[in-house]
């Protein structure tokens, strides 16, 4: 791989901390080339160097598409829905987050009929309907593939953990960053100003708790501000003269 595309130490550290390399207990025979070894507890460890190579290959393929809207990122899995939406936002691609309606690529009568040029799929198993329809209309498919993922009709398999929310979010962030770098939109020597946290799945309950905590903090801050302002006003107000008693001393 060219030195320009070689991974930096911080990229590898991010991938390790997001557990991109952690596979499953099962392994598909076609994924054996991407598996480094198997742990004592039966978990397969994915070769992170091959993960990076396939990420760069996928970025080069997607950069070659002239119109970004011809790229569709798909995720039926909840952990990947926020990631594909953010990926589409920053790269200009289209996205389908949630249930994939059968016939989207094959039935021209449906309202949501689309004719993309390439698919990016979060999991070939949960998004199997989209992969199957892509094979009917000769669409190339890029997929995040775990150690047990089926590779039928997948053209570019990115070997990685596609079941963890941090892993999925980081992979889409790395892919979006590399596409923008290859287009020349983002400088390669400078860090991308979009934080990776934006691509991570957020639990609705956690969001509600965070909103409540933020609202409580703002209310406390407002009360403190008004109390301080009130005390300052009292201190600044001039003192009134003592009232007259009506009895004056004789001259």
What does this structure look like?
The strands form two sheets. A five-stranded parallel sheet has the order 4-3-5-6-7, with helices on both faces. The protein has a two-stranded antiparallel ribbon with strand order 1-2. It is 40% helix and 12% strand. It is built from six helices and seven strands. The termini are far apart. α2 (48-63) packs across α5 and α3 (78-91) packs parallel to α5 (165-183).
Order of strands, widest sheet: 4-3-5-6-7
Output mean pLDDT. 82
- First-residue to last-residue Cα separation: 109 Å
Radius of gyration: 28 Å
Shape: globular
Task: Give the % helix.
Answer: 25-40%
What is the N-to-C succession of helices and strands?
HEEHEHEEHEEHH
Which consecutive residue ranges, at least 5 long each, have pLDDT under 50?
none
Short account of what is shown:
With 251 residues, the chain is of the alpha/beta class.
Question: Which short descriptors sum up this protein?
Answer:
251 residues, alpha/beta, five-stranded parallel β-sheet, two-stranded antiparallel sheet, 6 helices, 7 strands, 40% helix, globular
Helix-strand blueprint:
Elements: H1 9-17, E1 35-38, E2 44-46, H2 48-63, E3 71-75, H3 78-91, E4 94-97, E5 118-121, H4 128-136, E6 141-145, E7 156-159, H5 165-183, H6 204-236
Parallel strand pairs: 3-4, 3-5, 5-6, 6-7
Antiparallel strand pairs: 1-2
Helix pairs in contact: 2-5, 3-5
């Amino acid at each position: 791989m060219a030195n320009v595309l070689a991974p930096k130490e911080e990229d590898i550290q991010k991938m390790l901390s997001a557990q991109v390399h952690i596979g499953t207990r099962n392994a598909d025979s076609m994924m054996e080339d991407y598996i480094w070894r198997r742990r004592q507890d039966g978990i397969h460890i994915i070769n992170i160097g091959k993960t990076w190579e396939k990420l760069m290959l996928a970025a080069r393929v997607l950069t070659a598409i002239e119109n970004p809207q011809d790229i569709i990122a798909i995720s039926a899995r909840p952990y990947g829905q926020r990631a594909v939406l953010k990926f589409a936002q920053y790269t200009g691609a289209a996205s389908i987050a949630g249930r994939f309606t059968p016939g989207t690529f094959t039935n021209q009568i449906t309202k949501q009929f689309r004719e993309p040029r390439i698919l990016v799929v979060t999991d070939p198993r949960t998004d199997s309907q989209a992969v199957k329809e892509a094979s009917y209309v000769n669409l190339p498919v890029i997929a995040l593939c775990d150690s047990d993922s089926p590779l039928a009709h997948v053209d570019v398999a990115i070997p990685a953990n596609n079941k963890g929310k941090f892993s999925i979010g980081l992979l889409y962030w790395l892919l979006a960053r590399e596409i923008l770098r290859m287009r020349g939109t983002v400088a390669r020597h400078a860090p991308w100003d979009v934080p990776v946290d934006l691509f991570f799945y957020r639990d609705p309950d956690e969001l509600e708790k965070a909103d409540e905590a933020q609202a409580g903090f703002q209310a406390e801050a407002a009360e403190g501000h008004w109390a301080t302002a009130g005390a300052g006003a009292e201190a600044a107000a001039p003192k009134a003269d003592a009232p007259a008693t009506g009895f004056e001393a004789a001259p």
